[in-house]
Amino acid sequence: MLVSRVVLALALTGFVGCAGTAPPVRTNSGAHPPQLADVIPPDQPFQRHMVDLNGLHLSILEAGTGDPIIFVHGVVTTSNIFPKYVGAYSPEFRGVAVDLRGYGDSEKPATGYSIPQFSNDLIKLADVLQIKKAVWVGVSMGGMILQRLALDHPERVRALVLVSTTDGPMILDKDIPTIGAPRDYREVSKNMIVESFPADTQAKTYQPLLDRIPTWNGTVIREALTSMSQFNVHGQLTRLQVPTLIMVGVKDDVATPAIAKGIQAQIAGSQVVEFQTGHFMMAEDPDRFRAVLGEFLKELPLSQ
């Protein structure tokens, strides 16, 4: 049984990471797979690349020109949730959506699926792409990763967008140790997606997400969910001094409006925007999501 609840612990965590610089190494992976082709806006040119991070190969989706905005997905999705947004803000913003290690077309090492490691990978990716500072957009687990990144590398963050996320432990499955051995992690993923929508949601709203469940193994989701259940930066976010937008669904019982307002209270000048949705607002109200993010980007100070 899934437990859709968030527990705020008192203990604080900390992790510091670093990455060296390297010249860009990219290879075009060719035609888009069917599951991506069916969500790419026809009027926006996209490129899919494999990027070499000193031995770890990550897949990224790029579109547009301008200042960089980097999109980071959650625990049961991939970069395929972002095509409607990656190129939407060009020519002011060049969009980059990444498949985290173990997800989508990215390399799948034997281990390393923790929030601190994901954060380190993103800094290395920015180094390879020669991006000194970016607007970072993180959804659910992606938002947790970006809180860690912003605390460890504030100089790399121009602005922060936290979507359907928490600053404390997020427990989505109480039987994490058994995922993949022998439990079917695909069924676990499907259950998480369906239960993240309001009970009266029509299946056609979440079916595209089910159709694009990532190809991963049990280790990926087991380690990622374990890391999410241990995550806690509550009380540390007062150190952040960048423009921050927090988006939350009023029907989200995982990353609740109360949690979003708690994050807002810690980050000076941050703003909360509520959606009449559950956890997956990008699926339930994509047009408003695109508009709200666009307005936030327009209001940002000029990049230095």
How would you sum up this structure, described in words?
The protein has helices at 34-37, 83-86, 115-128, 141-152, 185-195, 203-211, 218-230, 257-266, 281-284, 286-298; strands spanning 2-6, 26-28, 47-53, 56-63, 67-72, 93-98, 134-139, 157-163, 170-173, 244-249, 271-275. It is an alpha/beta fold. The strands form two sheets. It has a nine-stranded mixed sheet with strand order 2-3-4-6-5-7-8-10-11, sandwiched between helices. A two-stranded antiparallel ribbon has the order 1-9. Helix 3 (115-128) packs across helix 4. The model is unreliable at 1-39 (pLDDT under 50).
Query: Strand percentage, roughly?
Result: 15-25%
The CATH superfamily is identified as: Alpha/Beta hydrolase fold, catalytic domain
Q: In total, how many beta strands? A: 11
Which regions contain 5 or more consecutive residues with pLDDT less than 50?
A: 1-39
SSE order: EEHEEEHEHEHEEHHHEHEHH
- Under CATH, the topology can be stated as Rossmann fold
CATH class: Alpha Beta
Give average pLDDT, whole number.
82
The spatial strand order of the largest sheet comes to: 2-3-4-6-5-7-8-10-11
Distance between the termini: 49 Å
Provide the domain count. 1
- By secondary-structure content and strand pairing, the structural class works out as alpha/beta
CATH architecture: 3-Layer(aba) Sandwich
What's the story with the biggest beta sheet?
Answer: 9 strands, mixed
Helix amount: 25-40%
By DSSP (H or I, 4+ residues per run), the number of helices equals 10
Computed CA radius of gyration, to the nearest angstrom: 18 Å
Name the overall outline: globular
